[in-house]
Amino acid sequence: MTGNEAIRVVIVDDHDMLRRGLATYLKVAPDIDLIGEASAGQRALELIEETMPDVVLMGLVMPRVGGVKATRLIISRSTARAHVSKILTKLGVTNQAEAIAFALRNKLVS
Which of these ranges, 14-18, 19-23, 82-86, 94-98, has the smallest mean pLDDT? Predict the structure, then answer.
């Protein structure tokens, strides 16, 4: 990452105690900015669109819209490109050639 920018994180889980525990831990981490929490998949979709986090800690099994379905919806929406672009920019990758080189160098693609 460039500079001292914190990693922006959203926590999504229907178990309050788990969510609070993770939040407590992340709030004291100097390089983490906890920007939101949601207890359900549908609220997670809204929150992610509003806040554009760098990382989403998503519970898998939740009532109604579970974590797997919510993740698929997030990826299928146009926000996926914006998220990847934002993360690459934070990493100092500014053009397509650098993005490809970064992905290959870090074994993100083969």
Answer: 82-86
- Is 13 inside any structural domain? yes
Task: Mark out the alpha helices in the chain (DSSP H runs).
Answer: 16-27, 41-51, 67-76, 79-90, 96-105
Residue 98 located in a structural domain: no
Q: Which CATH number does the domain housing residue 42 bear?
A: 3.40.50.2300
Task: Tokens 């579970």: give the residue.
Answer: 66
pTM above the 0.85 mark? Answer: no
Q: What total of structural domains would you count in the chain? A: 1
Q: What is the pLDDT of residues 9-48, one digit of tens each?
A: 999 998 999 999 999 999 999 899 999 999 888 888 889 8
For residue 67, is it within any domain?
A: yes
